[in-house]
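The aim of this short unit is practical: by the end, you should be able to scan a pair of folded records and say something sensible about each. We start with the first protein, listed as its amino acid sequence and then its structure tokens.
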Amino acid sequence: MTAIPEFEFRTSTKCSYDNSDPRCVEVATNRPGKVAVRSSITGKSVEFTSDEWTAFIDGAKVGEFDIKA
């Protein structure tokens, strides 16, 4: 049986990591068909399929999730 690799998280390029304020988003894409996103504060993560992640990114690019004041 082949072992499933652990997620290898990397920090978002938009993060300005600061030890006094370590709020960053980390993403892992090293497992085929899966994407994981976690908080650098809590370590909690959520997993998406590749299709779900692509739909999210596409929606974000066109403003689907913009907050309206």
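Turning to the second protein, read its sequence before its tokens, just as you did above.
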Amino acid sequence: MSSVSIRNLDLNFDNVEVLKQLNLDIPEGEFLVLLGASGCGKSTLLNCIAGLLDISDGQIFINGENVTWCEPSDRGIGMVFQSYALYPQMTVEGNLSFGLKNAKVPKDEIAKRVKRTAEILQMEDWLKRKPGALSGGQRQRVAIGRALVREVDVFLFDEPLSNLDAKLRADLRVEIKRLHNQLGNTMVYVTHDQVEAMTLADRIAIMRNGKIQQLGTPSEIYNEPANLYVAGFIGSPAMNFLDGNLKEGQFQFGDVTIDLTQYHYVTDARNGDAILGVRPEHILIGEAIKDHHFSTELEVELFEPMGSDTQIWTRLGEQSFRIRVDGQMKVSNGDKIRVGIDIQRCALFDKASELPI
């Protein structure tokens, strides 16, 4: 296994700064996910690690060796792209073995690696088929196998599941997680899908405008977001943001006031414009409200049945507000429901800096 270290990495396209003084350490055997919206620099960073882009400044180390100016083939990595990029005229076996033949690996070793890879990915029955006879999920599994057969220590995945339908994405997500648990290789995985990130990652690096906003475990990022952007990006449905003012522990927005004085994180907070973040799943309904100090009655504007849960759209203090409840709860448009807020699970941000209070 190999570690990956990035030091003070800059990448500029003409006068445009794409990656800015980026530092990142990925320990041996870690599954790191680079997460962010389109254009944040996550795929660009992956291509820098792979050697597909020449950086403007900084250094890249793999297993302690400076590979900043090494060719991609000399970095000891395997890469899986968004597109399958399989040779249509070759069988699955041919696609798996092609790179090894070019590297002049002995025939018996090639056969051994192809057989082992096919067993790991459970695709022994496809070896004589061509890509045109495979489903999208099967083709992507072959693409993963083509990287796996090289027996490298670092795997790079560039949004490998984005071309698949929802069920196939879920199935292959499990397979990739199982593969990492089985092999223990270092894996760097790019996605814009937070569900993939939360379920796959040992740690997540959330990126925005070429910089890492927060690096932490899925639990840390969900429960302790580093700023307003991270709080809004992680969570489905997204966190509610109430725009108001904090004064002596009282959070006010519109004609609504929420008393925060009983909670330690606002004891010494300065007064001023603030934003209270409330996740839809942390809204209290029914008996759960009685032990909490804030509750109010809201009118259901819209509801979305999702099966296991239902998402309710309403308004709190004239601001849009989403609630996530059990899917068995009966609700109709226009219903009045009493809700409470679990303040201890909320996040409070300074409006100007967008940093936590």
